[in-house]
Structure to design on (235 residues):
């Protein structure tokens, strides 16, 4: 049976919540869901004809036995980031660099994910999904970037399928590349934790063409992300 994209997003998020619940994640995940209580019936996207076999995980999610304190409040800080020309590959297979993707004055929201993750990443992506919806007209002038920390598995094709799971609009792009380049990007943002098992939820917001970024450590709601975005960009 083919489900609409909104139903896919809800089902995928629910599966993440069930996984999180066994690890003490449930309350944070529910709080982070920007679509809680939201009527999704107005979305008409369809996954008809889409081969979901590309979303199969290569192995059990390493977060299965990974304990992270998600009950703590989201930590906000300001960080200076010197962006270099680290090679990256967009979800459409186009070769690019981190510097090129961040050039110009467009505000940017950036996070790290991997497609086979069943806990932290689906919640992060659901937050970004809600964020793009809540940005309204501002989305047209915004970049949302998700960088894979498992690029050896996350091919462009898998990233496209993953993006569709969350109803990603054209302004929200996913990136892969070599493992070395992914690690370099993670280190640029101070997000590298050694391997997937130590992956933590982080989100970064930039007003566009600035060295200073807002860093959100934890699971903010979509409303919180939009609030930080507008405070940074407009004022």
């Amino acid at each position: 049976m083919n489900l609409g994209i909104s139903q896919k997003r809800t089902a995928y998020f629910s599966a993440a919540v069930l996984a999180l619940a066994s690890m003490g994640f449930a309350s944070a995940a529910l709080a982070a869901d920007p679509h809680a209580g939201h009527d999704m019936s107005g979305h008409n996207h369809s996954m008809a004809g889409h081969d979901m076999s590309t979303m199969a995980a290569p192995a059990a999610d390493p977060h299965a036995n990974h304990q992270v304190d998600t009950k703590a409040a989201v930590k906000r800080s300001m960080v200076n980031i010197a962006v270099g020309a680290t090679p990256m590959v967009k979800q459409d297979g186009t070769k690019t660099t981190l510097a090129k993707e961040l050039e110009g004055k467009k505000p940017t929201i950036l996070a790290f994910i991997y497609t086979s993750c069943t806990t932290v990443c689906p919640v992060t992506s659901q937050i970004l999904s809600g964020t793009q919806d809540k940005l309204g007209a501002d989305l047209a002038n915004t970049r949302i970037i998700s960088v894979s920390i498992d690029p050896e598995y996350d091919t462009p094709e898998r990233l496209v399928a993953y993006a569709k799971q969350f109803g990603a609009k054209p302004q929200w792009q996913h990136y892969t590349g070599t493992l070395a380049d992914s690690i370099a990007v993670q280190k640029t943002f101070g997000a590298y934790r050694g391997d997937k098992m130590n992956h933590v939820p982080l989100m970064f917001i930039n007003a566009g063409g600035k060295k200073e970024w807002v860093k959100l450590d934890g699971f903010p709601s979509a409303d919180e992300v939009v609030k930080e975005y507008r405070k940074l960009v407009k004022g």
